[in-house]
Protein backbone atom coordinates (compact mmCIF):
# COMPACT_ATOMS: atom_id res chain seq x y z
CA UNK A 1 0.00 0.00 0.00
CA UNK A 2 1.21 3.46 -0.81
CA UNK A 3 2.55 5.46 2.14
CA UNK A 4 -0.07 8.17 2.72
CA UNK A 5 1.28 9.48 6.01
CA UNK A 6 4.75 10.45 7.14
CA UNK A 7 6.83 7.84 8.95
CA UNK A 8 6.98 8.51 12.70
CA UNK A 9 10.54 9.78 12.62
CA UNK A 10 9.75 12.20 9.79
CA UNK A 11 6.97 14.07 11.58
CA UNK A 12 7.76 17.61 12.61
CA UNK A 13 7.81 17.64 16.41
CA UNK A 14 9.59 19.38 19.19
CA UNK A 15 10.21 23.04 19.76
CA UNK A 16 12.11 24.87 17.07
CA UNK A 17 14.50 27.66 17.89
CA UNK A 18 13.70 31.32 17.33
CA UNK A 19 16.33 33.76 16.14
CA UNK A 20 15.54 37.43 16.65
CA UNK A 21 16.92 40.16 14.45
CA UNK A 22 19.15 42.75 16.05
CA UNK A 23 17.99 45.38 13.56
CA UNK A 24 16.22 48.35 15.14
CA UNK A 25 14.21 51.32 14.04
CA UNK A 26 12.43 51.11 10.70
CA UNK A 27 13.89 47.73 9.72
CA UNK A 28 11.86 45.72 7.18
CA UNK A 29 11.49 42.62 9.33
CA UNK A 30 10.08 39.38 7.99
CA UNK A 31 9.57 36.10 9.74
CA UNK A 32 11.02 33.09 7.97
CA UNK A 33 10.11 29.58 9.13
CA UNK A 34 12.55 26.95 7.95
CA UNK A 35 12.42 23.14 8.15
CA UNK A 36 15.36 21.76 10.08
CA UNK A 37 16.56 18.19 10.34
CA UNK A 38 19.88 16.95 11.61
CA UNK A 39 20.44 13.21 11.13
CA UNK A 40 23.25 13.23 13.69
CA UNK A 41 20.98 14.14 16.63
CA UNK A 42 18.43 11.39 16.02
CA UNK A 43 15.67 13.91 16.73
CA UNK A 44 12.59 14.47 14.61
CA UNK A 45 12.54 17.47 12.27
CA UNK A 46 11.60 20.88 13.68
CA UNK A 47 10.75 24.33 12.37
CA UNK A 48 13.13 27.16 13.26
CA UNK A 49 11.93 30.74 13.09
CA UNK A 50 14.15 33.56 11.92
CA UNK A 51 13.35 37.23 12.12
CA UNK A 52 15.27 38.84 9.27
CA UNK A 53 15.77 42.42 8.21
CA UNK A 54 14.94 42.30 4.50
CA UNK A 55 16.23 45.76 3.68
CA UNK A 56 18.16 45.47 0.40
CA UNK A 57 17.06 41.86 -0.15
CA UNK A 58 14.85 40.98 -3.09
CA UNK A 59 15.17 37.21 -3.57
CA UNK A 60 14.48 34.27 -1.26
CA UNK A 61 17.99 32.88 -1.79
CA UNK A 62 19.54 36.18 -0.64
CA UNK A 63 17.34 35.94 2.44
CA UNK A 64 18.56 32.40 3.14
CA UNK A 65 22.19 33.38 2.65
CA UNK A 66 21.64 36.24 5.11
CA UNK A 67 20.16 33.81 7.65
CA UNK A 68 23.16 31.51 7.26
CA UNK A 69 25.67 34.35 7.42
CA UNK A 70 24.18 36.45 10.18
CA UNK A 71 21.88 34.30 12.29
CA UNK A 72 22.53 30.57 12.00
CA UNK A 73 25.55 29.10 10.20
CA UNK A 74 24.27 25.55 10.87
CA UNK A 75 21.48 25.89 8.28
CA UNK A 76 22.22 23.57 5.34
CA UNK A 77 20.96 24.15 1.80
CA UNK A 78 22.27 23.85 -1.75
CA UNK A 79 22.84 26.84 -3.96
CA UNK A 80 25.27 27.82 -6.67
CA UNK A 81 24.61 30.05 -9.66
CA UNK A 82 22.00 32.36 -8.03
CA UNK A 83 20.45 33.08 -11.44
CA UNK A 84 18.12 30.17 -12.27
CA UNK A 85 20.60 28.16 -14.30
CA UNK A 86 22.04 25.46 -12.05
CA UNK A 87 18.82 24.24 -10.40
CA UNK A 88 20.48 23.71 -7.02
CA UNK A 89 18.30 25.93 -4.82
CA UNK A 90 14.92 24.28 -5.45
CA UNK A 91 12.82 24.22 -2.28
CA UNK A 92 9.19 24.28 -1.29
CA UNK A 93 8.60 27.96 -0.67
CA UNK A 94 5.25 28.95 0.84
CA UNK A 95 3.78 25.64 -0.34
CA UNK A 96 5.03 25.82 -3.91
CA UNK A 97 8.17 24.28 -5.34
CA UNK A 98 10.53 26.69 -7.02
CA UNK A 99 14.01 28.15 -7.14
CA UNK A 100 14.93 30.36 -4.21
CA UNK A 101 17.17 32.43 -6.47
CA UNK A 102 14.39 33.40 -8.88
CA UNK A 103 11.58 33.73 -6.35
CA UNK A 104 11.17 37.34 -5.26
CA UNK A 105 10.06 38.26 -1.74
CA UNK A 106 7.37 40.42 -3.34
CA UNK A 107 5.85 37.27 -4.88
CA UNK A 108 5.25 35.78 -1.43
CA UNK A 109 2.82 38.30 -0.02
CA UNK A 110 3.28 39.96 3.35
CA UNK A 111 2.95 37.06 5.82
CA UNK A 112 5.54 34.62 7.13
CA UNK A 113 7.76 32.83 4.65
CA UNK A 114 7.84 29.04 4.98
CA UNK A 115 10.72 27.14 3.45
CA UNK A 116 10.70 23.34 3.32
CA UNK A 117 12.73 20.77 1.39
CA UNK A 118 11.34 19.43 -1.89
CA UNK A 119 8.33 17.26 -0.98
CA UNK A 120 8.47 13.50 -0.56
CA UNK A 121 12.23 13.23 -0.99
CA UNK A 122 14.58 11.72 1.57
CA UNK A 123 16.17 14.57 3.53
CA UNK A 124 19.93 14.49 3.97
CA UNK A 125 20.00 17.54 6.22
CA UNK A 126 17.74 20.59 6.62
CA UNK A 127 16.82 21.64 3.08
CA UNK A 128 19.22 19.25 1.32
CA UNK A 129 17.36 16.33 -0.25
CA UNK A 130 18.75 13.11 -1.65
CA UNK A 131 18.25 13.31 -5.42
CA UNK A 132 20.03 10.03 -6.26
CA UNK A 133 16.86 8.34 -7.50
CA UNK A 134 15.88 11.42 -9.50
CA UNK A 135 19.25 11.40 -11.30
CA UNK A 136 19.07 7.63 -11.85
CA UNK A 137 15.69 8.08 -13.53
CA UNK A 138 17.12 10.81 -15.72
CA UNK A 139 20.04 8.54 -16.68
CA UNK A 140 17.63 5.67 -17.46
CA UNK A 141 16.14 7.53 -20.42
CA UNK A 142 19.65 7.77 -21.94
CA UNK A 143 19.76 11.56 -22.26
CA UNK A 144 22.37 11.75 -24.97
CA UNK A 145 22.49 11.67 -28.78
CA UNK A 146 22.51 8.19 -30.29
CA UNK A 147 23.02 8.33 -34.00
CA UNK A 148 23.93 5.62 -36.50
CA UNK A 149 25.74 8.12 -38.65
CA UNK A 150 29.25 9.24 -37.93
CA UNK A 151 29.50 12.65 -39.57
CA UNK A 152 32.74 14.16 -40.69
CA UNK A 153 32.24 17.29 -38.59
CA UNK A 154 28.93 17.50 -36.79
CA UNK A 155 25.32 16.24 -36.92
CA UNK A 156 23.43 18.79 -38.96
CA UNK A 157 19.96 20.00 -38.10
CA UNK A 158 17.69 22.45 -39.90
CA UNK A 159 16.37 25.51 -38.02
CA UNK A 160 12.88 23.94 -38.14
CA UNK A 161 14.13 20.68 -36.65
CA UNK A 162 16.01 22.59 -33.99
CA UNK A 163 12.86 24.57 -33.19
CA UNK A 164 11.12 21.35 -32.15
CA UNK A 165 13.43 21.18 -29.15
CA UNK A 166 12.36 24.56 -27.78
CA UNK A 167 10.58 24.16 -24.48
CA UNK A 168 12.35 20.83 -23.91
CA UNK A 169 16.09 21.40 -23.78
CA UNK A 170 15.89 24.26 -21.25
CA UNK A 171 15.25 21.94 -18.29
CA UNK A 172 17.82 22.50 -15.51
CA UNK A 173 16.94 19.33 -13.54
CA UNK A 174 15.99 21.22 -10.39
CA UNK A 175 13.42 18.48 -9.56
CA UNK A 176 10.70 21.03 -8.76
CA UNK A 177 8.28 19.37 -11.19
CA UNK A 178 8.80 15.73 -10.23
CA UNK A 179 8.62 16.43 -6.50
CA UNK A 180 5.40 18.42 -6.97
CA UNK A 181 3.72 15.46 -8.67
CA UNK A 182 1.48 13.25 -6.48
CA UNK A 183 1.97 10.34 -8.88
CA UNK A 184 5.71 10.70 -8.39
CA UNK A 185 5.22 10.79 -4.60
CA UNK A 186 3.33 7.48 -4.67
CA UNK A 187 5.23 5.69 -7.41
CA UNK A 188 8.52 7.52 -7.97
CA UNK A 189 10.61 5.50 -5.57
CA UNK A 190 9.78 1.90 -4.66
CA UNK A 191 13.26 0.84 -3.72
CA UNK A 192 12.21 -0.03 -0.15
CA UNK A 193 9.58 -2.39 -1.56
CA UNK A 194 11.99 -3.96 -4.07
CA UNK A 195 9.80 -2.82 -6.95
CA UNK A 196 12.30 -0.73 -8.93
CA UNK A 197 10.80 -2.05 -12.17
CA UNK A 198 7.48 -0.46 -11.23
CA UNK A 199 8.57 3.12 -10.76
CA UNK A 200 7.13 6.22 -12.38
CA UNK A 201 9.93 8.20 -14.05
CA UNK A 202 8.40 11.57 -13.22
CA UNK A 203 7.86 14.70 -15.32
CA UNK A 204 11.52 15.81 -15.45
CA UNK A 205 12.85 12.51 -16.85
CA UNK A 206 9.91 12.22 -19.25
CA UNK A 207 10.40 15.78 -20.51
CA UNK A 208 14.00 14.85 -21.31
CA UNK A 209 12.91 11.55 -22.87
CA UNK A 210 10.66 13.57 -25.17
CA UNK A 211 13.51 15.99 -25.91
CA UNK A 212 15.58 13.09 -27.33
CA UNK A 213 12.62 11.48 -29.09
CA UNK A 214 12.03 14.76 -30.93
CA UNK A 215 15.67 15.29 -31.84
CA UNK A 216 16.01 14.85 -35.61
CA UNK A 217 19.63 13.73 -35.22
CA UNK A 218 18.77 10.83 -32.93
CA UNK A 219 18.19 7.35 -34.40
CA UNK A 220 16.83 5.59 -31.30
CA UNK A 221 13.24 6.89 -31.41
CA UNK A 222 11.73 3.40 -31.60
CA UNK A 223 13.85 2.08 -28.73
CA UNK A 224 13.12 5.15 -26.64
CA UNK A 225 9.36 4.80 -27.21
CA UNK A 226 9.48 1.06 -26.53
CA UNK A 227 11.21 1.72 -23.20
CA UNK A 228 8.49 4.16 -22.15
CA UNK A 229 5.58 1.94 -23.18
CA UNK A 230 5.02 0.87 -19.61
CA UNK A 231 2.19 1.10 -17.07
CA UNK A 232 4.47 2.58 -14.44
CA UNK A 233 7.31 4.44 -16.18
CA UNK A 234 4.96 6.66 -18.22
CA UNK A 235 1.29 5.96 -17.60
CA UNK A 236 1.25 6.92 -13.93
CA UNK A 237 0.96 10.50 -15.24
CA UNK A 238 -2.68 11.51 -14.81
CA UNK A 239 -2.28 15.05 -16.15
CA UNK A 240 -2.46 16.60 -12.69
CA UNK A 241 -0.37 19.49 -14.11
CA UNK A 242 1.44 20.45 -10.88
CA UNK A 243 4.65 20.06 -12.90
CA UNK A 244 3.58 22.85 -15.26
CA UNK A 245 2.50 25.09 -12.43
CA UNK A 246 5.81 24.92 -10.58
CA UNK A 247 8.42 24.75 -13.36
CA UNK A 248 10.71 27.76 -12.73
CA UNK A 249 11.71 27.77 -16.41
CA UNK A 250 8.11 27.90 -17.64
CA UNK A 251 8.32 24.49 -19.34
CA UNK A 252 5.43 22.12 -19.89
CA UNK A 253 6.33 18.52 -18.95
CA UNK A 254 2.64 17.53 -19.06
CA UNK A 255 2.44 18.45 -22.74
CA UNK A 256 5.64 16.48 -23.41
CA UNK A 257 4.18 13.43 -21.65
CA UNK A 258 0.92 13.78 -23.59
CA UNK A 259 2.93 13.90 -26.81
CA UNK A 260 4.82 10.72 -25.87
CA UNK A 261 1.47 9.00 -25.20
CA UNK A 262 0.16 10.20 -28.56
CA UNK A 263 3.25 8.86 -30.32
CA UNK A 264 2.84 5.52 -28.54
CA UNK A 265 -0.80 5.24 -29.63
CA UNK A 266 0.24 5.98 -33.23
CA UNK A 267 3.06 3.43 -32.94
CA UNK A 268 0.57 0.87 -31.64
CA UNK A 269 -1.74 1.63 -34.58
CA UNK A 270 1.10 1.16 -37.05
CA UNK A 271 1.90 -2.23 -35.51
CA UNK A 272 -1.71 -3.34 -35.83
CA UNK A 273 -2.08 -2.25 -39.47
CA UNK B 1 6.68 -6.62 -28.33
CA UNK B 2 3.91 -4.11 -27.83
CA UNK B 3 3.02 -3.52 -24.22
CA UNK B 4 -0.54 -3.59 -22.94
CA UNK B 5 0.01 -0.18 -21.32
CA UNK B 6 -0.70 1.82 -24.47
CA UNK B 7 -3.65 -0.41 -25.42
CA UNK B 8 -5.05 0.21 -21.96
CA UNK B 9 -4.56 3.99 -22.35
CA UNK B 10 -6.11 4.07 -25.83
CA UNK B 11 -9.09 2.00 -24.65
CA UNK B 12 -9.66 4.36 -21.74
CA UNK B 13 -9.70 7.39 -24.04
CA UNK B 14 -11.88 5.64 -26.63
CA UNK B 15 -14.52 4.55 -24.10
CA UNK B 16 -14.52 8.08 -22.64
CA UNK B 17 -15.08 9.50 -26.13
CA UNK B 18 -17.92 7.07 -26.85
CA UNK B 19 -19.61 7.96 -23.59
CA UNK B 20 -19.83 11.71 -24.22
CA UNK B 21 -22.63 11.58 -26.85
CA UNK B 22 -24.19 8.46 -25.31
CA UNK B 23 -24.46 9.96 -21.83
CA UNK B 24 -25.75 13.31 -23.13
CA UNK B 25 -28.41 11.39 -25.11
CA UNK B 26 -29.28 9.26 -22.07
CA UNK B 27 -29.65 12.27 -19.73
CA UNK B 28 -31.82 14.16 -22.24
CA UNK B 29 -33.93 11.03 -22.78
CA UNK B 30 -34.33 10.45 -19.05
CA UNK B 31 -35.47 14.05 -18.56
CA UNK B 32 -37.94 13.80 -21.44
CA UNK B 33 -39.32 10.58 -19.92
CA UNK B 34 -40.13 12.13 -16.55
CA UNK B 35 -43.76 11.28 -15.77
CA UNK B 36 -43.95 8.56 -18.43
CA UNK B 37 -45.93 5.43 -17.61
CA UNK B 38 -44.35 1.98 -17.22
CA UNK B 39 -45.71 0.98 -20.64
CA UNK B 40 -44.21 4.11 -22.24
CA UNK B 41 -40.85 3.27 -20.64
CA UNK B 42 -40.95 -0.33 -21.86
CA UNK B 43 -41.91 0.84 -25.34
CA UNK B 44 -39.06 3.35 -25.35
CA UNK B 45 -36.44 0.81 -24.23
CA UNK B 46 -37.64 -1.78 -26.71
CA UNK B 47 -37.30 0.58 -29.70
CA UNK B 48 -34.49 -1.07 -31.66
CA UNK B 49 -32.17 1.94 -31.87
CA UNK B 50 -32.74 2.88 -28.20
CA UNK B 51 -31.96 -0.70 -27.18
CA UNK B 52 -28.82 -0.64 -29.33
CA UNK B 53 -27.63 2.64 -27.77
CA UNK B 54 -28.40 1.38 -24.25
CA UNK B 55 -26.42 -1.80 -24.90
CA UNK B 56 -23.51 0.32 -26.19
CA UNK B 57 -23.74 2.43 -23.03
CA UNK B 58 -23.82 -0.63 -20.77
CA UNK B 59 -20.77 -2.02 -22.55
CA UNK B 60 -18.66 1.13 -22.56
CA UNK B 61 -19.41 2.36 -19.02
CA UNK B 62 -18.28 -0.76 -17.10
CA UNK B 63 -15.24 -1.08 -19.36
CA UNK B 64 -14.28 2.56 -18.78
CA UNK B 65 -15.02 2.20 -15.06
CA UNK B 66 -12.85 -0.89 -14.70
CA UNK B 67 -9.96 0.80 -16.53
CA UNK B 68 -10.28 3.89 -14.32
CA UNK B 69 -10.45 1.91 -11.08
CA UNK B 70 -7.59 -0.23 -12.40
CA UNK B 71 -5.50 2.94 -12.63
CA UNK B 72 -6.31 3.80 -9.03
CA UNK B 73 -5.31 0.26 -8.01
CA UNK B 74 -1.99 0.60 -9.88
CA UNK B 75 -1.42 3.98 -8.24
CA UNK B 76 -1.98 2.99 -4.65
CA UNK B 77 -1.61 -0.77 -4.23
CA UNK B 78 2.03 -1.70 -4.47
CA UNK B 79 2.07 -5.33 -3.31
CA UNK B 80 1.82 -7.48 -6.44
CA UNK B 81 -0.44 -10.13 -4.89
CA UNK B 82 -2.93 -7.65 -3.43
CA UNK B 83 -2.87 -5.69 -6.66
CA UNK B 84 -3.60 -8.70 -8.86
CA UNK B 85 -6.43 -9.80 -6.57
CA UNK B 86 -7.98 -6.32 -6.56
CA UNK B 87 -7.65 -6.08 -10.34
CA UNK B 88 -9.48 -9.40 -10.60
CA UNK B 89 -12.30 -8.28 -8.29
CA UNK B 90 -12.54 -5.01 -10.20
CA UNK B 91 -12.92 -6.87 -13.51
CA UNK B 92 -15.57 -9.22 -12.08
CA UNK B 93 -17.51 -6.23 -10.69
CA UNK B 94 -17.43 -4.42 -14.06
CA UNK B 95 -18.38 -7.61 -15.89
CA UNK B 96 -21.37 -8.15 -13.60
CA UNK B 97 -22.60 -4.59 -14.14
CA UNK B 98 -22.24 -5.02 -17.90
CA UNK B 99 -24.03 -8.38 -17.93
CA UNK B 100 -26.89 -7.13 -15.74
CA UNK B 101 -27.29 -3.99 -17.87
CA UNK B 102 -27.17 -5.69 -21.26
CA UNK B 103 -29.40 -8.64 -20.28
CA UNK B 104 -31.93 -6.21 -18.76
CA UNK B 105 -32.17 -4.27 -22.00
CA UNK B 106 -32.49 -7.49 -24.02
CA UNK B 107 -35.09 -8.89 -21.61
CA UNK B 108 -37.20 -5.71 -21.75
CA UNK B 109 -36.95 -5.68 -25.55
CA UNK B 110 -38.15 -9.29 -25.74
CA UNK B 111 -40.97 -8.82 -23.19
CA UNK B 112 -42.36 -5.56 -24.59
Automatic annotation (TrEMBL), chain A:
Pfam families: Fer2_3, Fer4_10. Pathway: Carbohydrate metabolism; tricarboxylic acid cycle; fumarate from succinate (bacterial route): step 1/1. Transmembrane segments: none annotated. Its cofactor is [3Fe-4S] cluster; [2Fe-2S] cluster; [4Fe-4S] cluster. InterPro entries: 2Fe-2S_ferredoxin-like_sf, 2Fe-2S_ferredoxin-type, 2Fe2S_fd_BS, 4Fe4S_Fe-S-bd, 4Fe4S_Fe_S_CS, Beta-grasp_dom_sf, Helical_ferredxn, SDH/FRD_Iron-Sulfur. GO terms for molecular function: succinate dehydrogenase (quinone) activity. Its EC number is 1.3.5.1. It is an enzyme of class 1 (oxidoreductase). The keyword Iron-sulfur applies. Belongs to the succinate dehydrogenase/fumarate reductase iron-sulfur protein family. NCBIfam families: dhsB (TIGR00384), PRK05950.1 (NF004616). PANTHER family: SUCCINATE DEHYDROGENASE [UBIQUINONE] IRON-SULFUR SUBUNIT, MITOCHONDRIAL (PTHR11921:SF29), SUCCINATE DEHYDROGENASE IRON-SULFUR PROTEIN (PTHR11921). Part of an enzyme complex containing four subunits: a flavoprotein, an iron-sulfur, cytochrome b-556, and a hydrophobic anchor protein. This is Succinate dehydrogenase iron-sulfur subunit. It comes from Parvularcula lutaonensis.
TrEMBL record, chain B:
Its cofactor is heme. Membrane-anchoring subunit of succinate dehydrogenase (SDH). It is found in: Membrane. Pfam families: Sdh_cyt. Part of an enzyme complex containing four subunits: a flavoprotein, an iron-sulfur protein, plus two membrane-anchoring proteins, SdhC and SdhD. This is Succinate dehydrogenase hydrophobic membrane anchor subunit. Keywords: Electron transport, Heme, Iron, Membrane, Metal-binding, Transmembrane, Transmembrane helix, Transport, Tricarboxylic acid cycle. The chain crosses the membrane at residues 14-36, 48-70, 91-111. It is a multi-pass membrane protein. InterPro entries: SQR/QFR_C/D (IPR034804), Succ_DH_anchor (IPR014312), SuccDH_FuR_B_TM-su (IPR000701). The gene is sdhD. It comes from Parvularcula lutaonensis.
Amino acid sequence: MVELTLPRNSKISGQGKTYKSEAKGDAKLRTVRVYRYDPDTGENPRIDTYEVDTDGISMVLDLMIKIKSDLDPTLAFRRSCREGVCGSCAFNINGKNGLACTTGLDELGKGDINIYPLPHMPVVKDLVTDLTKFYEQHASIQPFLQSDEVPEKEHLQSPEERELLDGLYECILCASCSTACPSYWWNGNKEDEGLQDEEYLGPAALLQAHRWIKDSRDDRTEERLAQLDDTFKLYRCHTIMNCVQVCPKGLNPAAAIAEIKRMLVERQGQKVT
Amino acid sequence: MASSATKHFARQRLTALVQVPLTIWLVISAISLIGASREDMLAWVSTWWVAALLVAWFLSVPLHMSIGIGDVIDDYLHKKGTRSLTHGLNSIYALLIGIVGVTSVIAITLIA
